[in-house]
Write a structure and sequence with these properties.
The structure is a homotetramer of 108-residue chains. Chain A has 4 helices and no strands. Chain A is mainly alpha-helical. Chains A and B meet through helix 1, helix 2, helix 3 and helix 4 of A and helix 1, helix 2, helix 3 and helix 4 of B.
Amino acid sequence: MDATRNNEQTITGSAHGYIKARDKELLQNRLKRIEGQVRGVQRMVDEEAYCVDVLTQIASVVSALEKVGTILLKDHVEHCVRESIENGEDADEKIEELTAAVERFLRV
Amino acid sequence: MDATRNNEQTITGSAHGYIKARDKELLQNRLKRIEGQVRGVQRMVDEEAYCVDVLTQIASVVSALEKVGTILLKDHVEHCVRESIENGEDADEKIEELTAAVERFLRV
Amino acid sequence: MDATRNNEQTITGSAHGYIKARDKELLQNRLKRIEGQVRGVQRMVDEEAYCVDVLTQIASVVSALEKVGTILLKDHVEHCVRESIENGEDADEKIEELTAAVERFLRV
Amino acid sequence: MDATRNNEQTITGSAHGYIKARDKELLQNRLKRIEGQVRGVQRMVDEEAYCVDVLTQIASVVSALEKVGTILLKDHVEHCVRESIENGEDADEKIEELTAAVERFLRV
């Protein structure tokens, strides 16, 4: 599986590379923190913390994930969508994809 | 910090213990899977996977977390809220807390 | 259809009557305002207002509706769920219904 | 106030006019239906319908509004954002505005 991963990295790395270097680090930091929060929730469940406190923590992880989502969304519009419009290539498809992604977030 | 944790466990463990044993395992399994999904998102960002795919994955983690939230909510109503109503103790406070938790989820 | 409505009113009015008189007025005021906001959105679309402003207005109507939802939810727990627990009647069913309603809101 | 509205219409009508004619009718139909649904909720509250049914109806209005939101969002990207990128004018500002609008929807 690791070999596949490396392959993918090579392919997708060159094919996309749209996430801003600055955002990549920001996103990784946020995702690390989110991973830690999820483990914190596991610990709370394990220790039978008060249910309302666990719910509050979960709501906070959801917010953090959606924040990551909007950063990615912005990078996506700034790079993929923008480029496809500038090059006059697949712009309709990219815009369709973008709104579909937002719909998946809103679950409409 | 670990000492504190152990203390908390003792206290909260005996004070609450309201998560059904069956749900506890179910919740831990789901939370483990969510943790894996978050790490998967980190990998996708690292490998510069296609942004829309990362967004789809994030939307799926959000759904999984909200599902965990509703399982906890149900356990909470079935135990804490129910007991407080049956014992005529703090029922108003528990109900207030419950709706506040739902509001935090809906962010209203 | 109006005849049916009147019938329903008689039946449901006596069967439920669980919305607090105070909340009923509050809810109607909020719903009236929401109706006005929806008409405002129609006007904005009609007059081709700036799309982002229309989106902001829609997001605000969604928040207002979810706020109404949580008021109803609280009344529901305070009355139906509480009564069914106190009377030891259909409590499980009521709690099941409650979490299903929350899930519909979160769309999980 | 009506005079103002007419003024606004003239100004914004010529300034924007970005909603597709086809979508404008579609949006108005959806918004009319949403207005009817909100009045339906008012009637349900008035007639003290079963709370869970009212909540279900509200959840359905929220979905319908978010659907309208995504149609507007798509029109916005297809017109305003696209044009600003094509003309190389205010593209950054438009993209910033777009993600801010999505964030308001997700309330992150």
